[in-house]
Amino acid sequence: MVFNRREFLKTAATASAALALPALGSRAFAADAIKVGALYSQTGGLSVAEKLLANGVMMAVAEINAAGGVLGRPVEVVVEDGASDPKTFSEKASKLILKDKISTVFGCHTSASRKAVLPIFERRGAMLFYQTHYEGFECSRNVVYSGAVPNQQLSNYIPWIVEKLGKKKFFIVGSNYVYPREMAKVSKKLIEAAGAKWVADEYLELGHSEWAVMVSKIKESGADVVLSNVVGDSIIAFYREFKNQGLSQEVIPICATVTSEIEIAAMGAEYAAGSYTSFPYFMSIETPANKSFIDRFRTFVNDPKAVTYHSLEAAYFQVFLWKQAVEKSGDLSADAIRAGIRGQTYDAPGGKVTTDPDNLHCWLTPRIGQWQPNGQSKVVNAYPAPIKPLPYSAYGETESNLFCTGNGLDAAKLKG
Amino acid sequence: MLDILFIGLSLGSILLLVALGLAITYGAMGVINMAHGEMVMIGAYVAVLSGIWLKTSLLLAIPLAFVVTALLGLMIERVVVRRLYGRLLDTLLATWGIAILLQQAVRLEFGLSFFGIHIQGLGVGLQNVAVPSYLQGTFRLAGADINAYRTFTIAVTAALTLATWFILYRTAAGMQVRAIIRNPKMAAACGIDVKRVNAVTFAFGSGLAGVAGVMMSGFKTVFPDMGTTMVVDGFMVVVTGGVGSLFGTILSSGLLGEINALVAIGTNDILARAVVFGVVILVILVKPSGLFSFKGR
């Protein structure tokens, strides 16, 4: 993957030169440009994943500029490096908001970095657009969440595994931090509701890639399906060890919530063939919009083999949701964006997405993909329409009993 | 029980694979080589690149990686490490700098990415090494399913350890190395060309790291930062075993591997890791020079 800030700057410079020509000189243009932030790790352990997301944002901005910008003004991205460190994320967020006077930042990937910047956005009145699927349990009025929450990944998944695959004993495995643990909490409820049971709930250190013991535990446990909330490069070692210990995806399939096209390509497709993942977006979605998205992304990053995946798609479409919100309210302040974005709908590469008027999360279409030997997924099950995001589903939130509304979190319900 | 012991053996062999080269560069030469993990990483990238561009199998990558990393090690010794012998902390900082340089060289594709040129197999992303089909899956032995790739790793580790032992203890060059471990000045006084021997030793240690990298690429992810965590484990094994003792390194990697496996099976992996660190701390407290150590003279 080629890092594309340079490429982007070139494109942006060309686009802005064209736009600035009538305004005589770049000075006038600079005053007119709308600045937004892109806060991702450009260095460190998380940069592999986060640079791709930054590319998604960059591409969307480049396309918006090529089509005339927002409110007739070009968009300029200020890129900051979170350096895979939550503390750096919070410093850079302050810098973007206070020094650059930016009211909209696209960024963060891990929950740790989002939690670190959250107080800054809330105190200084700026908006964060966050694209990664996450554990829920958050109801900030200063964040637009465009990735999936647990109910959008699990509510269709678990019943489908029990009914369609006929699996009864779940082995839940994850990396040891908040996302997998919250996912496990939601899963257990759904597993029990579906009449199945879970035999183990185990965790491996984040970033750890020694799976010998865990896989042998899976073998011994008598489980007939594995629910994996493993993240990062641990995923690759996990699937490889799974096959190398003689377990078969046909007998005990791994049903994952994080494993995406990126990890499949890195592990070698033969290791994952037959396993499942639940995501609102897959690269294999056969629509002209998605095909065009893949082509444009590959051109943009100058890599003919680049893959697209859920978080990348969300990083891309959230910029358009922001554009629509700004154009609706005609103002750049956080309050205006918040007011404008409620109920905004956009035709994303993976289908229609809508920002929920209550909790600022995104209506997405849950899909289940089975990985094929060619490294792509086959969508074996999909909801007919996008479903409402429920960030507190693990704590009993339902569509008729919302915990997170336009007024913020109803803490009384959380306790009850 | 057999499979648990096998897992422990496998964990130990992976530790030893990385520690073996370190036992030589750190143990024998007194260089805290922070770039050792990056040598592992370069070895893994040799496997990736030779697979993509030369279409060779993983097996052929082993000698290739050894040669590439040994030459790189030789260069590093000649240019940097040679000037820093006897300055332990300075070697640490200098080799750490080298480690970052090497990581960035791979990440930026040796600077070519600035010109918009992309080499397949390099860059920031995760890489994939194809494992031959006969090394995937399991084979049956004595009523247990044995993991083929891990068996292969154990075999390679055993072969490398044996080769290292043979070179150190059964050849004239090895005797010179051991003489330098005990007392470099006296060795020089006896007519040993300390500079030359050190250069070759450093290259050999780096070459071992390269082979470790090829083996790692078969079950771990290959990316520019992959070596950083491995070097920590490597130092842990060498320090526990006793600096300068090949036997101590072998024993401590086996010990730590088995402890890790047994505790992990009984409880979980997170606790097992803590227990391993606890054991290491205990060993260093009780025997500061490690389980087996020479008295320097």
Put the structure in a nutshell:
By secondary structure, chain A is an alpha/beta fold. Chain A contains 16 helices and 17 strands.
| Biggest sheet descriptor of chain A | 7 strands, mixed
What's the CATH first level of chain B?
Answer: Mainly Alpha
| Ends apart, CA distance between termini of chain B | 45 Å
Q: Please mark out the parts of chain B with pLDDT under 50 across 5 or more consecutive residues, or reply none.
A: none
Overall helicity of chain B: 55-70%
CATH architecture grouping of chain B = Orthogonal Bundle
| Portion in strands of chain A | 15-25%
Supply the number of helical segments of chain A: 16
Mean pLDDT of chain B: 86
**Cα-based radius of gyration of chain A, to the nearest Å:** 21 Å
3D architecture notes:
The complex is a heterodimer of chains A (416) and B (297). Chain A has 416 residues and is α/β, with parallel strands linked by helices. Chain A folds into two domains: 5-148 and 286-365, 3-Layer(aba) Sandwich (Rossmann fold), CATH 3.40.50.2300; 151-279, Response regulator (Rossmann fold), CATH 3.40.50. Chain A is built from 16 helices and 17 strands. Chain A has helices at residues 5-20, 26-32, 47-66, 86-99, 111-124, 150-154, 157-163, 178-193, 212-221, 234-244, 261-267, 269-272, 288-301, 310-329, 334-341, 411-415; strands spanning 34-40, 75-81, 104-107, 127-130, 143-145, 169-175, 197-204, 225-229, 254-256, 276-279, 345-348, 351-355, 362-363, 367-371, 377-382, 404-405, 408-409. In chain A, helix 10 links the parallel strand 8 and strand 9 (254-256). The longest helix of chain A is centred in the N-terminal third of the chain and has 20 residues, at 47-66. Chain A is globular. The N and C termini of chain A lie far apart (49 Å). With 297 residues, chain B is an all-alpha fold. Chain B has a single domain, classed as ABC transporter involved in vitamin B12 uptake, BtuC (Orthogonal Bundle), CATH 1.10.3470. Helices cover 70% and strands 3% of the residues of chain B. Chain B has eleven helices and two strands; from the N terminus they run H-H-H-H-E-E-H-H-H-H-H-H-H. In chain B, strand 1 (138-141) and strand 2 (144-147) form a beta hairpin. The chains are: A alpha/beta (416), B mainly alpha (297).
